[in-house]
What we know:
Largest interface: A-B, 49 and 31 residues
Radius of gyration of chain B: 25 Å
Radius of gyration of chain A: 17 Å
Helix content of chain A: 25-40%
Largest sheet of chain A: 6 strands, mixed
CATH class of chain A: Alpha Beta
Mean pLDDT of chain A: 90
Number of helices of chain B: 13
Mean pLDDT of chain B: 82
Oligomer: heterodimer
Order of helices and strands of chain A: EEEHEEHHHEHEHEE
Number of domains of chain A: 1
CATH superfamily of one domain in chain B: MetI-like
Strand content of chain B: under 5%
Number of strands of chain B: 0
Number of helices of chain A: 6
Number of strands of chain A: 9
Low-confidence stretches of chain B: 268-274, 286-303
Structural class of chain B: mainly alpha
Structural class of chain A: alpha/beta
Amino acid sequence: MNMGEELAHLHDVSIGYVEPLVHDITIEIVAGDVIAILGPSGIGKTTLLRTMAGLVRPLSGEVELGVNPRGGLGYIPQRLGLVGNLSVRSNVEMGARVRLSKWHPPFLPLPQELADEVNSCLVSLGIDHLADQPVRILSGGQQRRVATARTIAQAPKLLLADEFLGELDDDNVEIVMNAVQQVINKQNSALVMVEHHEELARQVANRIWKITDGRLVEEV
Amino acid sequence: MNKRFLIFASSIVFLAFFLFFDLVGDWGRLSGGWGNLVLFFEESLWPPNWSVLEAQSYPVCEARFEIFCSVAWLGMVETLKIAFVATIFGFLISVPLSVMAASNLSSPYLALPARVLLAGMRSLPSIIWAVLFMIIFDVGALAGIFAMTFYTVGYLGKLQFESMEGIKNAPLEAAKATGMNRFETAWLVAIPESANNLLSHVLFMFEYNVRHGSVVGLVGAGGIGLYLNTYLKLAQYDKVVALLIIIFVVVVIIDFISMALRSAVNEEGDVERPTWSSLFLPAAFTSSNHPTPIKKIDGNESE
């Protein structure tokens, strides 16, 4: 396994919307990292994740991603971003679709190989029995597992997750983290997650970033 | 309500009355109007002439029931067919246009022309489109289909792009971050996410097109309106009234069916689907005070 492959690099990045929330972030993310971003509410954790996901422009500095723009980055937003009217399977298939060429028509079924991978994602997250249910009727915890399955089916190199372990009980945290860890090992990828529960974050992460007074500091 | 609002609201109402009196002008010319209406009603309109439900003398009726060869049946069925075809064609054209017009799915360079196109199609009423298409296709159903399709595209397109713009941002952001292209995002996220509204709008549009089918027919674009126009020209107002009553009944029936179907696809459809009795009777006679709760699958995975 090629541990140490650089997946993202932030050079002197300042993030925020109008006023900068966090200044001069210079960090790199390498394969195998499981990084937890900690800090109080409203301090810029989600904005940092959204900036890395390419959804917000940095106020200054540069974000370099060493992943394929199509499918290389997996993102689980705080509100999960699932399509409530579609079934669990269709939502998870959406993740697998970005592994195909962008010219592959989205109305055609997935090739068998990817369809099998979708099935194994559903099984590994323990939601295979809900495969045909519309997502909108599921509980919050189940929806979190669907969002995780969608991202895992994508087999991303860099996985960004915004409080995706919230609302999960201990057993489900274990199920979700096992599935994510498998992807990290198999794809040689990295996970960056925003987490409110510090204790939980410290259990699962191997790097901790803290945002305090507008600065991002890595705990050694 | 504060004082300023009351003054503002009363000024608006006062302005409306002022304009009304200004528009009426000479009140003297209205004298005897009611009497004229009563006379016209008694002499020409009532009772309705139900011969419109009898088979036409030509061509010879070969149907099992006479009514199937009647003016009312043939006209109404043609109006329904025109409305159905126009609604489906209009929907098929308006969906891609509304994706292009939605600011959260498309670039401003594409959204603006798409919106202008939709506004243009909407700004001409279907009756004007019917006149234009009659010049191309002559009198008949084809002009009606094209006229109503054009208007449907403009009207439905606006409703649909507004629905698509109203969907939650999180699924779109997740799609964008993962590298989906615009077509995939529209097909896999935006359209399914707004599907309930899209279906509801289509049903509403069908109902609207049935109502307007008779108006479009008045200028010769097929359907029951064509017969209405003929009877109006021949001053056979008792037949006109009979046809209007039939149109009213059909529109009410379609309205109820559409209401039931729309309730089934609305978000509220998960809570309590309407029954047929609930459409005809007041709520106190039909439903319990406690709506059925949304079915939730238990988060516990012990099953």
